[in-house]
UniProtKB/TrEMBL annotation:
Keywords: Hydrolase, Metal-binding, Metalloprotease, Protease, Zinc. It comes from the Eukaryota. InterPro entries: MetalloPept_cat_dom_sf, Pept_M54_archaemetzincn. Its cofactor is Zn(2+). One of its GO terms (molecular function) is metal ion binding. This is AmzA. It comes from Mytilus coruscus (Sea mussel). It is an enzyme of class 3 (hydrolase). The keyword Nucleotide-binding does not apply. Its EC number is 3.4.-.-. One of its GO terms (biological process) is proteolysis.
């Protein structure tokens, strides 16, 4: 209830109630329930190498091309300028993922489940497309993108006559013994030729190792954001493989791993990589504020220990862009994590759901108290 004022209404100084101490920044951060960004523990960690400025929510609103009409010029689909989010502005838009190279026989990969996870996580429709064939000739030290008859224009609204011949496009590559890597630039170039007209972005996924420059040990992938295409490799996410820090071709295998363990680890790592990179294509930069799925990683160990979840800053960006309900998204993620026995992620999202429930209950009680007192 209101109290009788002991100070003048227009007093410049109004003290806190006796005994109250306003929370400092540490308490404010802890109240959110997220850990602040971890400090580097290795000279190869991302923040030990790069001076990242970070991207605030306000900067995201200013920079994200999907919020404005800047993407309209490059996207060949219906555009609704008065839409308040990406789904309303591009009502026919989808995210596509496509296997690049051989995946059959690797039964620890389920593309439909990867697509389902990305759709739940991002709140945007995600579809898979038939795979692209690669031919790698170890003896000849050559690699090719294989384009089959009628494949050229089956996705795009292209008026050109489709070829009746199978074509082979030479890809940049390098070989050492039985090991090989493919150049990301040529792969991105080929993906650009196949991007569907209704694609918000087009993601190629491969089990081939990748590189960009001759000095690279490897690259996990690369995106061409202006062209809405990206290519990413799961090769180094295989827990049976160990890699040299000096030579890209120096790889050893641990044959003691069970198929169940391989599947579980690779699937979790692949889910995280996929949504991290798609978020980049949607305009979300690396996070420096909290432990977050959008943290940068300087090496595989740092990548593996980073969380699946988005921090409050980046979750707010994605929610603004897409317009999903936070609680509904968390509940759907919980079901997915339970189905795939992703225990760490299941436990984390369960705590968030409970916290939202407590906050909602407190607000309801507060509103009830106000209505009764008025």
């Amino acid at each position: 209830m209101p109290k009788i004022r002991k100070t003048k209404a227009n007093s410049k100084y109004v003290p806190y109630a006796s005994g109250f101490r306003p929370p400092n920044k540490d308490r404010q951060l802890k109240a959110i329930g997220f850990d602040t960004s971890s400090k580097p523990t290795n000279i190869d960690d991302w923040l030990a190498q790069y001076n990242e400025d970070g991207q605030t929510y306000k900067q995201f609103l200013q920079d994200c091309p999907w919020i404005s009409s800047r993407k309209r010029k490059s996207v060949k689909q219906r555009f609704v300028p008065e839409g308040s989010n990406i789904l309303e502005k591009y009502p026919d838009g989808k995210i596509y993922i496509v296997p690049v190279g051989e995946f059959d026989g690797h039964h620890y990969f389920y593309f439909d489940e990867l697509a389902k996870f990305a759709e739940i996580y991002l709140g945007i429709p995600v579809s898979t497309l038939p795979g692209v064939d690669l031919e790698v000739k170890i003896k000849d030290r050559k690699a090719f993108w294989v384009e089959h008859p009628s494949e050229t224009s089956q996705l795009k609204s292209d008026t050109r006559r489709s070829s009746s011949r199978t074509k082979q496009h030479t890809l940049e590559s390098r070989f050492k013994g039985t090991q090989y890597q493919l150049g990301v630039k040529d792969l991105l170039k080929m993906l650009r030729l196949k991007i569907p007209d209704d694609a918000l972005c087009f993601i190629g996924l491969t089990l081939s190792d990748l590189f960009c420059d001759d000095t690279d040990l490897f690259v996990a992938g690369m995106a061409a954001g202006n062209h809405r295409v990206a290519i990413f490799s799961f090769y180094r996410y295989n827990p049976t493989l160990s890699f040299s820090q000096a030579d890209w071709f120096d790889v050893t295998m641990d044959k003691k791993q069970t198929q169940e363990n391989i599947h579980k680890i690779m699937f979790q790592r692949s889910c995280k990589l996929l949504v991290h990179e798609i978020n980049h294509l949607l305009g979300i930069d690396h996070c420096i504020f909290y432990d977050c799925c959008m943290n940068g990683s300087g090496h595989l160990s740092e990548d593996f220990r980073q969380p699946m979840h988005l921090c409050p800053v980046d979750l707010r960006k994605l929610q603004k862009l897409v317009g999903f309900g936070i609680l509904k998204r968390y509940n759907n993620l919980l079901k997915f994590y339970e189905k795939h026995e992703m225990e760490e992620e299941r436990e984390w999202v369960s705590k968030r759901i409970k916290m939202i429930g407590h906050i909602s209950k407190s607000l309801e009680q507060e509103q009830l108290g106000l209505s009764q007192s008025s």
